[in-house]
Every structure is written in C-alpha cells, then in structure tokens.
Design a protein that fits this description.
One of its GO terms (cellular component) is cytosol. The protein is of the alpha/beta class. It is about 45% helix and about 15% strand. The chain contains 13 helices and 8 strands. The protein is globular and about 55 Å long.
Length: about 350
Amino acid sequence: MEKHKQALSNSFFICESDASLPQSFEEKIQGTNDDASDLKASAVALGYWKDPFISYFVAPQSGRLRTAEMHRGCFVRVKGIETIVRQFLAVYGSQGQVLSLGAGYDTLYWKLRQDNVALKCFVEVDFDNIVLKKKAVLEEHAAIFNPSSNAHGSAPVKMTDSKNEIHMGNYYMVGSDLRDVKELNDYFVTKHVLDFAEPILIVLECVLMYLSSGECQNLLAYLVNAFSNSILLCYEPAGTGSDNFMTIFESNMERRGIPVPGLQNFKDDAAVRSLLLNAGWEKVTHWRANYVFEKCFPSDTVRRIQKIEFLDEPILLSQLLQHYIFAIASKGRYMNRLSFIGFV
C-alpha cells in the first residue's frame, strides 16, 4: 500500500516547476503546461510515438523525474485524444471543427495537417502568455509550421499582428481566460472563426479540475448552448468512489499552491455523467484510461511500447490509469453519429 501511495505521488500529476517563486494562479497553471510538454517531449524522444513538432516548443530537461508509468500514462492521454479527434474528422471531414480549450503547446493540428486530414478549422484557446510563446516558435520556425497558401509553393500565410492571436490558414489560437466566457464568445462572434451550427468537437484536456464549481458550470453551459451540434471530449483525473486517490492527488497539487476545486465533479463515474448531462448534453459515454490502454489500442502498439521501458509492477500502471477518464458527450442532430466516435 505504501509503495502504491509513493507511486501516486511520483506519477502523472507531478509538477516540477519551482513552487518557491511567487506566482499568480495563471502562472501556476501555465507551469503545468510546461511540465506536461516536457513529459511529452521525453516520451517522444524515447520512441513512444512520433511527433516531429513538440521539440520546437520544449526540450526534455535533464534531472527531471520521468518514470515508465509517467511515459505510458502520457502515451495513453495523447493517443487517446488524438484517436477521438481523428475519428470525428473522419466522419465530418471538411465540415468538422475542432475547438481545444486549454491547448498549451499541443501539436495535434500540425500532425493532422502533415497527414492531409480534412477539416474546416482548428481553434485553440489558452492564456495570453502561452499564445505569445507558441506564436514566437511558429514565427521562428516558419518553414516548418507556416503552410503555403496553395500547393504550388506561393508565399506562406501570414499570421495576425495581434499579440495574443494566431491565424495560419485554418488554424487559430487566441489568448483568453476560460473563466470569462463572455470574452471567449466575443472573440468567436467578432472573428467568425467558428460556425455555431456546424458540427464541432470541443476538447477539454485536464482543464475542468482547475475551475470552481460555478466557473465549470458557466463554461459548460456556454459551450452546450452556443454550439447546437456539438461533441465534447473531456479527459480528467477521476476517483472510483472506493479509494483515496483524489485526496492524494489534491494534496500533491496543493503542495504546489495549485487549487483543484473541480475535482469534486470527478469523484466517480456517476458524478462525471451528472456534470455533463446537467449542463445540457444529451448523451454521455465514458471510459477509464486503463480500459482504453488494455482493450482498445492495437495489440501490436501496446507490445511495442511495452518494450521501450521496463515496468517493475505492471499492475501499478493499470491502477493509476484507472483513475483517469475519457468522457464524450453529445448534443444536436449529429448525435446518431456518436456511435462512430469512441473506444471499442
């Protein structure tokens, strides 16, 4: 039991930015993006998956704790979300819109573009500082990230002059605080980057746990009412109702001075369903991350990554993954297509 607790303390949710320095709430949340991006870069460097873009945003720092459990957990998170996004775009193609809230240094758009995946638009939202840093990377490495306006190699699409906004072809990123839904809506309405009536996949990846109950309800209510034909993909830590995982998780985050009031919405499966159904989505399906890894990923993929790093106790990984959840909620006339999207 003690070993299990220690593993929980050292696993997916560890954040190693310097907590001794005075930081605002926004800076602390941005620090979790740096940590997650570092872990992604580390896993990619080891060969867990291919991502030729992440290294431009962050290089793995020496001396950081990165266990095999952390790398595999990161693999499940990244590839699980990517699987759903690709499924959605396979169904809706050039009609499909993706809205990623709290996107950080995510590189999925460029991987999709590299594979010539059809989509209408890909929109990311995060704090201003994250947008500024991401924009600086895109400008510095324009030959890598900035697409040509056509297949004949004409001048690349120029990014917007706005400091907290990026626009490159059908890719957009804007700086906004998700606690202020009016600011978010004003951007969408003013810039016309999204079609409110067309199918949209909204991605919330480890975002809701940082919001208070009221902030979470406001954000979800806005999303479900603004986008009449929407699918929501949510990935968060989640309790099982039968252990003290959430208490340990919360304690670890509090040591960094990062409140996670939204964890109460993910205390068990029933709480997750209630959160999304009460917000207004009409159908909710969810899977624990251990099920996704053990039952839904291709067996040859699982065997390949199992060879990358040795696991002393494989059962521990399964127990840890059990405490993370993928949830998909849908609303509108496209609900009948939800059967094509998910893990089987």
